[in-house]
Amino acid sequence: MVKKLFLAFLAFSLVITFTGCEEFTDWLLEGTTTTGVEGELELADGVEGDLVDANVYLYEDAHFDSSSAESEETDEKDEGTAAEFKLVVDAGEYYLLAWKDVDEDGAVSYGDLVGIYDGKFGADEPEMIEVTEEEMKDVGTIKMYEYEGGGGGGNGGGTGSIQVSSSPSGAAIYLDGTNTAQTTPATLTNVSEGSHNITLTLSGYYDLEKTVNVTKDQTSTVDATLEAKGGVVSVDVDAILFLDGWYINYFYTFNHDVFLTNCVITIPSVDPFIDSDEYGKRSRGQTYTTGNFAYDPNNDGVADGPIPTGTHILLFEGYESYSEQEFSIEKEISVPLRRM
Fold first, then answer.
1. Is 0.70 topped by the overall pTM?
2. Which PROSITE patterns match (predicted)?
C-alpha cells in the first residue's frame, strides 16, 4: 500500500513538472541541499556595456584549463548591468572565471568583459573556491572588467594576432604575465603592435618563455616544445684560473631542478675534498660558482704554488626535485682551460 501511494505521488509530480508548473516543483524541492556555487556578476565602476549572454565557468586549476571547466549561462538583471548565476558541481576546489565574449571570437581578448573571484582578471591571481558536500557556496559579487589583453589595443595603435602551439598541447598561455584563460593550440587576437612575452605552463613540464613581435593586421607564430620534469639529470662544468694560476673557480649548470647533497672535488696530487658550500636547491639552467680554491697541500691556509694542471674531477650527488630520483655524476675538466 505504501509503495502504491508513493508511485501515485511520483506520477502526480511528473505530471505537474511536465505541464510547466515550476512553482510546484520548486515547492517540492524546497529544503533539498544542493552542492555548488552561486553569486552575482556586476560591471565594475567605469565599465560600459551589459552582461547579457555572459557565462560563468568553474575550473579545477588556476590556469583555467578548458578540459576541466563546468559552465553556466547567467540570468541578467537591472537591464543587463548585473547577472545572477548558480552552478551545481561536486564538492571540491574550483577557480571561477566569468566572461562575456563581446567580439564573439571564441577567446578571451581585448574588450571582453571578464571577472574572477576576489580579484581582477589579468592583475590578480585567481583565488580558490572550496565547495563542501551539500553546500551552495555564495561567492558574493564578481566584478566584471574590460580585458586589456596585456596592453593590447587600448593605446590607439594597430593590433595583430599570435598563434600559439606547443608539444604537448594543453599548456596555459600567459601574455605579458597575464593568464589569457586559453590553452594551446590557440590564437590570441587584438594584441597590440610591438614586442610581447609568451609564457607556457603545463603540469609536469618546465615553464617556457618566448618573446614574439606583433605586426599590425598580421599573425605571429609561437611553436614550442616543452621539456618534461623528472628526466635524467646532467650537469655542465667549467673552470677558470686566476692570479697567475694560483687560484681556481668551478662553474656548473644542471639541466633539471635538483637538490644537491654532496660535491667532492679532486685535484691532481691533492686528496679529494668536500665543498660543503655546494649544498641545497639548484635551479635548472642557472650557473653556479664555487668558492675560490688555492693549492694548499700542507693545510696551513697558505697557498704553496699554482693550482696543479691536468684532469680535475667534480662529483655531484643529490636528487631531482620533481621525481626525487637520486643521482651521482662525475665530471672531468682539463685544466688549464683559460686564465684571468
1. no
2. EF_HAND_1, PROKAR_LIPOPROTEIN
